[in-house]
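testing teh design pipeline on a random one, pls ignore if ur not involved
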């Protein structure tokens, strides 16, 4: 009889364009050999040009999805993406405690604090950012903000290694075990440096900056690749290093689709 692969749960929104959100998460889970589980939080109307709107899933349906898969199938690691409202965030936090997912439980939990799409459309109601900070960060094994989210959360504008380090220190104060400050948006450099920090020695992950406009879903794909490695038992520095190598190639293989921004692509992993 075949044995089941490890499982990873994404708690996130749907992207009708298939490049970000749960669709990106499932692509990354599949490419990294883990079985993807889903608790859908919102349905966005979205294409390569942006987000036209969204509607959230009722809170009790969000939490029921988490409980259903956790109680029957088991979750080896989990991540959040778009959570839409403070009400959903509070309910997710409570449910994760009930099913023993989070930094002090043995089941790693990655929080990607998605606030807006790369096209600038809000994916989170305004008052909900505070709930991410107070309800989710203290439960997180790792948080993975991009530079826009860093500015919203801390007020720090990252422009160089010193401000990236200061941002990591400020973010760690919110209570996660680890912080990854992603440097994808620091555009005037020829490298892409992400900074991983747990209050001891900062770890710089340096990759080439690939010249492409097609980076839709890059953040989700990175967080899901990290979650996949954690689900397979890697420690955080190993999981982030593996995911950094993975995302770099996904950005290099990104393809145009539609008139706007195309998605990063994990397809290369299947061809290897
Ligand atoms: N042009 C690029 N070349 C190589 N790596 C990149 C590039 N852009 C982003 N990355 C990497 O992809 C990951 C996601 O980074 P980024 O800072 O863009 O996150 P994000 O803003 O959440 O993503 P998204 O594009 O989905 O909004 C990081 O590891 C980053 O270093
Ligand atoms: C449902 C959903 N979740 C997350 C993102 C962020 O991805 P990006 O920053 O690449 O637009 C998105 N656009 N849609």
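output:
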């Amino acid at each position: 009889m075949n044995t089941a692969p490890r499982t990873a749960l994404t708690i996130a929104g749907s992207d009708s364009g298939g490049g970000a959100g749960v669709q990106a998460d499932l692509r990354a889970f599949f490419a990294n050999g883990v079985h993807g589980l889903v608790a859908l939080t919102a349905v966005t109307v979205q294409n390569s040009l942006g987000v036209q709107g969204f509607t959230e899933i009722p809170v009790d349906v969000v939490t029921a999805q988490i409980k259903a898969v956790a109680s029957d199938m088991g979750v080896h690691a989990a991540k959040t993406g778009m959570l839409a409202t403070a009400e959903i965030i509070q309910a997710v936090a409570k449910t994760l405690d009930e099913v023993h997912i989070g930094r002090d439980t043995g089941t790693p939990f990655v929080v990607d604090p998605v606030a807006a799409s790369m096209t600038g459309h809000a994916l989170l109601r305004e008052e909900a950012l505070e709930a991410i900070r107070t309800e989710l960060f203290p439960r997180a094994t790792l948080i993975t903000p991009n530079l826009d989210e860093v500015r919203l959360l801390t007020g720090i504008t990252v422009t160089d290694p010193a401000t990236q380090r200061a941002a990591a220190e400020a973010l760690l104060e919110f209570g996660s075990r680890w912080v990854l400050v992603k440097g994808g948006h620091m555009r005037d450099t020829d490298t892409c440096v992400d900074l991983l920090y747990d209050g001891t020695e900062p770890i710089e992950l340096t990759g080439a900056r690939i010249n492409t406009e097609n980076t839709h879903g890059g953040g989700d794909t990175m967080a899901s690749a990290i979650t996949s490695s954690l689900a397979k038992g890697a420690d955080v520095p190993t999981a982030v290093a593996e995911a950094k190598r993975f995302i770099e190639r996904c950005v290099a293989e990104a393809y145009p689709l539609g008139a706007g921004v195309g998605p990063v692509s994990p397809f290369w992993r299947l061809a290897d």
